Amino acid sequence: MGTLKDKVALITGGSKGIGFGIAQALIQEGVNVAVTSRSEEAANDAAKVLNAMSSKVEAMGIQADVRDFDSQQNAVRKVLARFNQLDIVVANAGIGHFANIEDLTLDQWQETIDTNLTGVFYSIKSTVEALKKSKGYFITISSLAGTNFFANGSAYNASKFGLTGFTQSVMLDLRQHGVKVSTIMPGSVSTFFNGNDPDAADAWKIQIEDIGELVVDLVKMNPRTLPSKIEVRPTMPPGK
């Protein structure tokens, strides 16, 4: 894409954590940004902070639930109505339920799959025509848990293994239309994910601005080159 000035991005789950870090990085590059959250208040609060960062571009908050296709479509309609284009989509919204398979509930399984996997399917289905028109970029946020399994991770592993494979297949489907598709697979990130409360003890972890920087690098890369799957790890995790 080269310069990102006046491009338009939609980030699901963009009111906090990794999604918000990506939104901050894109705003600083001159990108208009829409962030979604299941909470209208959280989406609007995030947009207010983002708008304070630059007077040259605009951030908008949208209440939307990735688990609901109609909700996703409505969010996209709002973005197109405001900006008349969509260049970058970051499917970031995700949750984690971690429990032994004997204790994992049916609701926890369903919510994990519906959010982390089906929600991304809804994200691409609702944005694909706009991205084909702009020859844009679709990025999913998977996890190192998308290739590395662990105890008590059956639902999360299933969702992220599925997301990693899904994204790679979509990449093959859409590159013929000039749409680039990548998945980013972070390890430990300093966020509020799964009840974590980030503090100084998280300094060794990947920071949200690091993922934001990576997204900027991806979308600015020469169109002839596509890093389709990127694993990201902390440089120096604590010794065990």
From TrEMBL:
<comment type="similarity">
    <text>Belongs to the short-chain dehydrogenases/reductases (SDR) family.</text>
</comment>
<dbReference type="InterPro" id="IPR036291">
    <property type="entry name" value="NAD(P)-bd_dom_sf"/>
</dbReference>
<dbReference type="Pfam" id="PF00106">
    <property type="entry name" value="adh_short"/>
</dbReference>
<dbReference type="InterPro" id="IPR002347">
    <property type="entry name" value="SDR_fam"/>
</dbReference>
<dbReference type="InterPro" id="IPR057326">
    <property type="entry name" value="KR_dom"/>
</dbReference>
<feature type="domain" description="Ketoreductase">
    <location>
        <begin position="7"/>
        <end position="190"/>
    </location>
</feature>
<dbReference type="InterPro" id="IPR050259">
    <property type="entry name" value="SDR"/>
</dbReference>
<dbReference type="GO" id="GO:0032787">
    <property type="term" value="P:monocarboxylic acid metabolic process"/>
</dbReference>
<protein>
    <submittedName>
        <fullName>SDR family oxidoreductase</fullName>
    </submittedName>
</protein>
<dbReference type="InterPro" id="IPR020904">
    <property type="entry name" value="Sc_DH/Rdtase_CS"/>
</dbReference>
